């Protein structure tokens, strides 16, 4: 994603007719500039500068790029209940004469306790089996819903990215505007370089057209020096 800031200003209309023609010709000859839809454009580090041939305006665009990502996790719980019913029986012997204190009451109580203990153990084992079956069934249900879960997670991640991206885009646009204000000279430098070439060519053409003698053109350390002799 990117944030941009654009500034337009007059340029060609501030030049004389001859200077503007020379400037536009120099733009066309400079391979750093590309021609598209009536505009000369140059890509710069962090933006572009363009010259609109019809209006003579310079357009500077600062661009800042960033990446926004988000993750989302969707959790779904499969619930169920486990009902366990179990019974157990136990038989105890007793003697009518209460031999060895094995009365009917003692035998019945012992049988009930033993039966309850066996029933509890069976219930615990059955509950464990049912819980395992429920767990496996839940896993199978979730596996069947995997596509749906993935889609939900993707939609949530996209929603988060969209929300974050909009905020980040606004921040980048503000930063791009600040950069454009601070680096305006850097954006205009290639324009001025072409303008210098245009003035050079225009002056040289004028000198030659008017019979100038001893024409010398020197470009050293960014300085342009043109000398010639011409009768008044």
Give a structural overview:
Strand 6 and strand 7 form a beta hairpin. With 232 residues, the chain is α+β, with helices and mostly antiparallel strands. Helices cover 50% and strands 21% of the residues. The strands form 2 sheets. Strands 1-5-4-3-2 form a 5-stranded antiparallel β-sheet. Strands 6-7 form a two-stranded antiparallel ribbon. The chain has a domain at 2-69 and 173-229. The model has no long low-confidence stretch (mean pLDDT 76). The radius of gyration is 45 Å and the shape is rod-shaped. The protein has helices at 17-29, 104-144, 146-182, 184-209, and strands at 2-10, 34-36, 39-44, 47-52, 57-65, 213-220, 223-229. It contains 4 helices and 7 strands, in the order βαββββαααββ.
Give a nutshell description of this structure.
The chain is of the alpha+beta class and 232 residues long. 50% of the residues lie in helices and 21% in strands. The protein has helices at residues 17-29, 104-144, 146-182, 184-209; strands at 2-10, 34-36, 39-44, 47-52, 57-65, 213-220, 223-229.
The largest sheet is:
5 strands, antiparallel
Judged by helices, strands and strand pairing, the structural class is: alpha+beta
Percentage of β-strand residues: 15-25%
How helical, in percent, are the residues?
A: 40-55%
- Poorly predicted ranges: none
In which order are the strands of the major sheet placed? Answer: 1-5-4-3-2
Q: So what's the overall shape?
A: rod-shaped
Distance between the termini: 62 Å
Average pLDDT works out at: 76
- How many β strands by DSSP? 7
Q: How many helices in DSSP terms?
A: 4
Rg from alpha-carbon coordinates: 45 Å
**Helix/strand order:** EHEEEEHHHEE
């Amino acid at each position: 994603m990117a944030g941009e800031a654009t500034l337009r200003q007059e340029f060609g209309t501030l030049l004389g007719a001859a200077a503007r023609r020379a400037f536009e010709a120099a733009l066309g000859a400079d391979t750093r500039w590309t021609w598209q839809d009536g505009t000369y454009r140059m890509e710069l580090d962090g933006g572009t500068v363009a010259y609109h041939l019809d209006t003579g305006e310079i357009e500077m665009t600062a661009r800042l790029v960033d990446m926004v990502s988000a993750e989302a996790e969707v959790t779904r719980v499969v619930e169920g209940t486990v009902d366990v019913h179990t019974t157990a029986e136990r038989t105890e012997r007793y003697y009518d004469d209460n031999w060895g204190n094995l009365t009917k009451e003692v035998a019945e109580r012992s049988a009930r306790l033993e039966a309850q203990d066996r029933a509890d153990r069976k219930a615990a084992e059955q509950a464990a089996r049912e819980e395992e079956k429920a767990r496996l069934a839940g896993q199978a249900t979730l596996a069947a819903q995997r596509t749906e879960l993935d889609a939900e997670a993707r939609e949530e991640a996209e929603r988060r990215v969209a929300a974050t991206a909009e905020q980040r885009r606004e921040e980048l646009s503000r930063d791009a505007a600040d950069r454009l204000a601070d680096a305006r000279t850097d954006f205009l430098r290639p324009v001025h370089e072409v303008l210098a070439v245009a003035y050079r060519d225009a002056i040289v053409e004028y000198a030659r057209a008017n019979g100038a003698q001893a024409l010398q053109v020197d470009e050293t350390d960014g300085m342009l020096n043109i000398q010639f002799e011409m009768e008044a």
